Amino acid sequence: MLKEKVLGTIKKYNLIEDGDRIVCGVSGGPDSISMLNILKEIKDEKIYNFEIFVAHINHGLRENAKIDEKYVLEYCEKNNIQCFILNANIKHEAEKQKRGLEETGRIIRYNFFDKVLKETKSNKIAIAHNSNDNVETIIMNVIRGAGLSGLKGIEAKSDIHIRPLIEVNREVIEKYCEDNKLNPRHDESNDENIYTRNKIRNIAIPYIKQELNPNILETITRLSEIAKDDLNYLDSQTELSYKAMCLEEKNITENVYNVEKEATIILDLKKFNKENRAIQKRVILYSINKIFKTTKGIEKIHIEDIIKLCNNNIGNKFITPNKKTKIVIKNKKIYIIGLK
């Protein structure tokens, strides 16, 4: 049942094609080992012709981390899958970089996946997010005050990242592990209600299920699908509007880690001011994302200030929403500048 569901997701979102080389992020928990085992089955049955590699990270945070590492290695050796291991000291790195443990772990994880991707000449990275993760993410986004984009949740496919389990709930995954005697590892930190996600997973959702809506997972998943349809339309309109008002792109690079000095996007101020406010907001975010490959650090208040500056239509004015971004109004043009 689970394999058929995953195959449906793969076909629906075109996650895998013949000739792909896929790096699977595998912790050893139920989600990731199920994903790996199913992809191995699909490969062995020649449903698709692709190669699999495994990337595992020992975060150095838990006593059982070495046992998890051994479990993943043994699975890979048994099934003749090349496995790459990173031993990291997340706590030390978090202190050094002055970041939280979760954020530091995510950065190290994705950097390692990218390294293995290059080393194996792969073209995709498989992440084992499931539908429960998606719902938890949407609830977290709502709590943080995210806009419509926050309701979209986790995408089945984003750039090179694919998520074959995204339409499968945790209960089905655990049953699959039991039926196939996979004996996955258990991360005991998931039981500790320290982090926001764990509080949502272990306290909020069970309460809502019991007291308010037993089908909360399905309900929020439907909400996510509706939001995705609306956002896809808005994204297409934003891109059209951006192309119509963009006068010049200077020093824009595709390298996410190397923003060129004073990378700049110049927009036609008159055309911008004629747009609907919803599109104005999205064009600003679209432009900033084009420069930095992220909109992190740009808050709602910053967007409002930028629109106010543009609508006032007064030349030689500027604001700096953060240390890396400068917005200048000059000669009836909007200059969105990335400061290195």
Describe this structure in words.
With 340 residues, this protein is of the alpha/beta class. It has 2 domains: 2-131 and 153-192, HUPs (Rossmann fold, 3-Layer(aba) Sandwich); 233-338, Chorismate Mutase Domain, subunit A. It contains 12 helices and 11 strands. It has helices at residues 2-13, 30-44, 65-78, 90-97, 101-119, 131-143, 170-179, 196-211, 216-245, 269-274, 277-292, 300-312; strands at residues 21-25, 51-58, 82-87, 124-126, 157-158, 161-162, 246-250, 263-268, 317-322, 325-330, 333-338. A 6-stranded mixed beta sheet has the order 3-2-1-4-6-5, sandwiched between helices. A 5-stranded antiparallel beta sheet has the order 7-8-11-10-9. α2 (30-44) crosses α7, α6 crosses α8 and α6 (131-143) packs across α9 (216-245). The longest helix is centred in the last third of the chain and has 30 residues, at 216-245. The termini are far apart.
Features:
340 residues; alpha/beta; Rossmann fold; 11 strands; globular
Helical segment count: 12
CATH architecture of the largest domain: 3-Layer(aba) Sandwich
Fraction of residues in helix: 40-55%
Domain module tally:
2
Briefly note the CATH topology name of the largest domain: Rossmann fold
List the quaternary state of the chains.
single chain
Biggest β-sheet strands, sense, barrel: 6 strands, mixed
What is the percentage of strand-forming residues?
15-25%
CATH level-4 homologous superfamily of the largest domain: HUPs
**Average residue pLDDT:** 90
CATH hierarchy, class of the largest domain: Alpha Beta
**How many strands appear in the DSSP assignment?**
11
Low-confidence runs: 256-260
Cα Rg: 22 Å
The structural class is alpha/beta
Strand line-up of the largest beta sheet: 3-2-1-4-6-5
Instruction: Indicate the overall shape.
Output: globular
Q: Gap between N and C termini, in Å?
A: 51 Å
| Elements, N to C (H/E) | HEHEHEHHEHEEHHHEEHHHEEE
